[in-house]
Amino acid sequence: MVSRVIPVDPFDLVIFGGTGDLAKRKVIPALFRRYCAGQMPEGARIIGAARSEHDAEEYREFAAESIREFSPGRGCEDGTLEGFLSRLDYVTIDAMGEDGWEELASKMTEDRVRAFYFSVGPGLFGALADKIHAHGMATPEARIVVEKPFGNDLATAKELNATLATHFDEGQIYRIDHYLGKETVQNLMAVRFGNMLFEPLWNSQYVDHIQITVAETVGVGGRGEYYDKSGAMRDMMQNHLMQLLCLIAMEPPARFEPDAVRDEKLKVIRALGDVLPHHLVRGQYDADADHPSYREAVDNPRSKTESYVALKTHINNWRWAGTPFYLRTGKRLKARSSVINVMFKDTPHSIFGEEAGRHANVLSIRLQPNEGITLQVTIKEPGPGGMRLIDVPLDMTFAEALGEEGGDPPDAYERLIMDVIRGNQTLFMRGDEVEAAWAWTDPIIAGWEARGDVPKPYDSGSTGPRDAELLLLRDKREWRGITP
Ligand code: NAP
């Protein structure tokens, strides 16, 4: 099956922070791959913008390097790189000053979609919005793309929403959470709402509990200064895990349309219960032979910021009352693995007797690596010798199911950037969603700050602090393993 490419109209895309890490690793390679897929129409232009002095030729060289490094050999034919690079331009610009703005405005094409990607620190978002407006570029066709972090708490998120709303309608603001751009996330919706099989069982009567794990093997790397002011709760839980929770728990929207979907997600966040102190575990990774400890990495020997958080929460509505949701995320863990496990209840009665053991279905939705969905089902172990039950996976790994012709699914940034151009906000967070997520997160953080909680140390390469295991063991449950 060959993936279908939906054409888009010519557009202008400005990448503020076009020389930065995100542009280099994700945005430019993603645009290149869309070009290779034939989705970048004649006349589409990409303009990098940052303070460093470069001419267009130097910027093209920068882009070529980023593609060679971060998108090697991804299905592009020879000669395509030059074609792509010819679309690129560059403007030296200072978000805080006047340099470059008139030049940028002069490069805009009338009456076509113009997208402004804010790939800069959040402290510049307001200044960029002001300048785009002041220089007459905030036309009805304009849209802005905003990266995380969207605020640091409810107050700052509200302030940021208000600042952006001064010059742009909500329909022009695309708040990126790249987890939502993953193929599996959309497939989760297809599986839930496109099959009769799952939805009738998707509630507290049949689901014992749900686990969401986002495990990283990397440490804080070069982001120590930012990360130590943020921590796992703000950096991951408030946005990525919260979004996954919404998609797994929301009611079926009446239509697969942006506001219908986002209305349902918002209801989930608003129905979230408080997190009790003993339902919360925070951790900090220790050093190992090859890597420094968290505190060394952030150069703060007394840091109380968590590099790991696990919690148990509930969704207080008819569908989910009584079903716990266990969420965990951390750095320097055993494997890189993002997975949602829907743990179904045991059968009410085993006709096979106690010796057959207890078996429950598990639907695993893997976001990375190896995107795919697996349903664990119970069958009879083949062969003679009586009725012995075993669990086997029904694997819906996309690469296998779609065959070689399906190719790699587009990366999240590819999909999300093209959605911006198409004007489809379904996979972007609405302002009220972000605020509701902070409204839930803020009291949890205020609680541990008031208690003076210190994160528990955990071994690098482990599954996190022992207390996180106990969080489930106390409920007679266990985390699924963290496997690559
Ligand atoms: P970065 O590597 O520090 O890049 C920042 C970019 O902004 C550079 O191109 C810089 O170029 C430009 N810049 C800085 N001050 C400017 C100014 N006053 N006017 C115009 N341009 C300016 O940061 P990054 O890692 O790419 O991150 C960018 C944003 O994406 C941040 O909000 C970050 O939180 C978010 N994000 C990043 C990642 C990632 O993987 N890197 C992932 C998720 C979210 P000059 O110095 O030449 O101006």
Mean pLDDT comes to: 93
Q: Count the helices. How many? A: 14
The percentage of residues in β strands lies in 15-25%
Radius of gyration: 24 Å
Q: How many structural domains are formed by the residues? A: 2
- Low-confidence residue ranges: none
Name the hetero compounds present: NADP nicotinamide-adenine-dinucleotide phosphate
What's the CATH superfamily of the largest domain, by name?
Dihydrodipicolinate Reductase, domain 2
Describe the main β-sheet briefly.
9 strands, mixed
CATH architectural name of the largest domain: 2-Layer Sandwich
Q: What is the share of helical residues?
A: 25-40%
How many beta-strand elements? 15
Distance between the ends: 27 Å
> Order of helices and strands, N to C?
EHEHHEHEHEHEHEHHEHEEEEEEHHHEH
CATH topology of the largest domain: Dihydrodipicolinate Reductase, domain 2
Structural class: alpha/beta
Helix/strand layout:
Blueprint: E1 11-16, H1 21-36, E2 45-50, H2 56-70, H3 80-85, E3 88-92, H4 101-107, E4 113-118, H5 125-134, E5 142-146, H6 154-167, E6 173-175, H7 183-194, E7 207-215, H8 224-249, H9 258-270, E8 280-285, H10 294-297, E9 308-313, E10 325-330, E11 337-346, E12 360-368, E13 372-380, E14 389-395, H11 398-402, H12 412-422, H13 431-451, E15 456-458, H14 466-473
Parallel strand pairs: 1-2, 1-4, 2-3, 4-5, 5-6, 7-10, 8-15
Antiparallel strand pairs: 7-11, 8-9, 9-10, 11-12, 12-13, 13-14
Helix pairs in contact: 1-2, 1-12, 5-6, 6-13, 8-9, 8-13, 9-13
This protein binds NADP nicotinamide-adenine-dinucleotide phosphate.
